[in-house]
Design brief:
Layout: H1 3-33, H2 37-48, H3 58-68, H4 75-83
Helix pairs in contact: 1-2, 1-4
Length: 86
């Protein structure tokens, strides 16, 4: 296999991951905008689980800890948290 083919396949997977992550964020932000920060987090986690490269994202556990400790208790904080995913 040629190195260019390998590079192209890697770039395509990265693009697919980025597109999926953007979709996850968009759906979660809809809940934030509706004032439901807990459902925003649940939506983000659920949607991350639908893609092999995001299903074990490190921020999932971090978000749960922050949510349970009350650090993601406002729309602004949850929006910033969700937008920080990469």
């Amino acid at each position: 296999m040629h190195w260019l083919s390998l590079w192209s396949a890697g770039a395509e997977r990265k693009t697919q991951r980025q597109e999926h992550l953007g979709w996850c964020k968009k759906r979660a932000i809809e809940y934030v905008d509706a004032g439901d920060v807990q459902q925003a987090y649940a939506s983000m986690v659920s949607d991350l689980g639908k893609h092999p490269e995001t299903r074990e994202h490190a921020a999932i556990a971090l978000g749960m800890a922050l949510l349970m400790k009350g650090y993601l208790d406002s729309q602004t904080k949850m929006r910033d948290f969700i937008n920080g995913f990469n």
